C-alpha cells in the first residue's frame, strides 16, 4: 500500500466543538435558481469551510434529480481544488458500481495531483438514483450484481490506486495515471501517496466491510438515523487494525441548519422535507421556496413522513443547533460530524455554516 498519513483521515476538533466538523454538499438547486448559481454557492461554502476551520468538504453523487446538481463529483472537486488551498476535498461519495474502477482511480489520481495531500475518496455501493437511471449509467439492468460485487470492485480499485497488481494478473501492465507508477518509473519524482479510501453506508454491509478492512467509515445518519448506532457498533466490533488505521474512525452525515430565529430555520428545512415527499412519490423537482413549502397541503400520510423527517434534522437557533449536535456526538460516539445544510437558497446555507462556526468559536483564518 502506498503512503497514507493518519492526519489525512483523523480530524482535529476546533474551538468548543465536541469533534471535528465537516461539510457535505448536495449542490441543491432551488426553484428560480440555476445549476450555475448552485455551483457558485458550493465554491462559497468550500471557501467558508476553509476559512472557518471545518476539516473537510465532500460532494455526493446523485443522478436524474433536478434539485441536486452533484452528478459529477470529480468535476466539482477539481473546480473547488482550484479555488481553495487547505481544506480537504472529497466524495461522499462516488457510487462505485456506477463506474469502472480504473476510471475512478484515474479521476482521483488527477485530483491528488491537483491538490496533493487533501483529497478523500469516499465510496458507496448504492446507485445514488432510481433503478432505471442506474441501468442507464451501468449499461446493465443487473443492478444487484453491481452491489454484490462491491468488495471485488473495491479490491480492484485499491490495486489500481496502489499500482500493485501481482505478476500474471490481467491488469498487471495497466497503470492508473496520474498515479504511483510515475514515482517508481526511472527518473520519476512523483509522490506515491494516494487519496485515502472511505467506505460509506446507510446499513450494516459497508460498516462491517470497513471494519474488516481497517478503513475509515462514514454513515448516512441524515437519511438513515434509526440505523446509525447499530451500524457504528458493528463497524467498531468488526474493526481490524490496518496500514491505514490502528483504531476505528467513523464520521456521520448530519442534516443541520441554524438560522437567526427558530421560525426561519423551520421554514428552510421544510423545503427539503417537501422535496423528499416529492422524490419518494416519483415527482422529483427543484427545491421549493419556503413560501410554497409553508402553503403546501400535506396529506395525513405525507404529514407523518414530514414529521419523522424533520425530527432527524437538527435545526433552530444557534444555541438549539449546538445542543442538538453535542447530544448527537455524545449519543453516537462519532469521531466527526459532517454537516449538510439543505435549503432553497444558497444564502440560508451559507448563513447556517457561519452561525455554526460562530457558536463553536471555530478559528478564522485569512
Please tag this protein with its features:
alpha/beta; 43% helix; 366 residues; 9 strands
Describe the structure.
The protein has 366 residues and is an alpha/beta fold. Helices cover 43% and strands 13% of the residues. It contains 14 helices and 9 strands. The protein has an 8-stranded parallel barrel, surrounded by 8 helices. β6, α9 (228-238) and β7 form a beta-alpha-beta unit. α1 (35-51) runs parallel beside α14 (346-359), α8 (204-213) packs parallel to α9 and α13 (318-332) packs across α14. The model has no long low-confidence stretch (mean pLDDT 93).
Helices and strands, with pairings:
Elements: E1 21-25, H1 35-51, E2 56-59, H2 73-81, E3 88-95, H3 101-114, E4 119-124, H4 131-138, H5 143-148, H6 150-162, H7 181-184, E5 197-201, H8 204-213, E6 217-219, H9 228-238, E7 250-258, H10 262-280, H11 290-295, H12 300-311, E8 314-316, H13 318-332, E9 336-340, H14 346-359
Parallel strand pairs: 1-2, 1-9, 2-3, 3-4, 4-5, 5-6, 6-7, 7-8, 7-9
Helix pairs in contact: 1-14, 2-3, 3-6, 8-9, 10-12, 13-14
Give the fraction of residues assigned to helices: 40-55%
Tally the helices. 14
* Major sheet strand order: 1-2-3-4-5-6-7-9
Average residue pLDDT? 93
**Biggest β-sheet, characterized?**
8 strands, parallel, barrel
Low-confidence stretches: none
Order of helices and strands: EHEHEHEHHHHEHEHEHHHEHEH
- How many strands appear in the DSSP assignment? 9
Radius of gyration from the CA trace?
A: 20 Å
